[in-house]
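To: structure subgroup
Subject: Chain for Friday's discussion

All,

I'm putting the inputs and outputs inline so they're searchable in the archive.
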Amino acid sequence: MVTGAFGYTGRYIARRLLARGRRVITLTGHPDRVDPFGGRVRVAPFDFDRPAALAETLRGATVLFNTYWVRFSRGRTTHDLAVERSRILVRAAKEAGVRRIVHVSIANPSRESPLPYFQGKALVEEAVRDSGLGYAILRPTVIYGLEDILLNNIAWLLRRFPLFAIAGSGEYRLQPIFAEDLADLAVRAAAGDEDWVVDAVGPEVYTFNGLVRLLAAAVGSRARLVHLPPGVALALSGLLGAAVRDGVLTRDELDGLMADLLVSSGPPTGSTRLSDWVAQHADRLGASYASELGRHYR
């Protein structure tokens, strides 16, 4: 059982499982979305409002790969609601007899975090650990791939504007992991019996300045990098968001980035170098804008 197999991270995991001859069911909030697997994945709704029906859908599954979360609050879809829905999902998995949960979290979650995203992720991890089921918790930082939003939209801006605004010094760091590497790690984690928690990170660490320069060079951008106070940079992102009808950057996302929460102190668990991947896919990066709201809310 894979949540969001028609989305981003879940799609890579489902693809890996199908390649290994596994039967895959997906729980999704978008059952009418185009099926990238040609009918090989059975589709079921999340049914958070009907826990018994959700448990029945999960019955027979041996492993639940959970990628469910929300990037930012919008309307009634808040991080608090995402936490409660995740708890419902974990309880349904236990009732259904699922053997193991492979849960995709975030690097450096904390119950005491002032950032709802990181606090909420910590609370969901607690639910997984306290479930009594076997578990593996993967803690990625930034996940990149052709469906990625962050790197793609940075490249999109670099292709189209003479200036690129960076909040603060730009010396805060990121340690991105390739979506294929994360999927490999998740599928390997499903086969084990031990409970474990691991950071899912790639072999290269970049400052935000360095990441933007890497993308600029790849797409042939001559945009000038301009360092602005964080509040000014956020205001500009708000104006851009209004123009493209999307949520470009939130205060919590910027605070987490500037607090160095998207880097690991442990060894890399992915092998793909971002620099190599960017060079290989430079022609596609930023060719069009990727909308978060278009992908998940419209």
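Points worth raising on Friday:
The first strand starts at residue 2 and ends at 3.
Residues 68 and 181 are 19 Å apart (CA to CA).

D.
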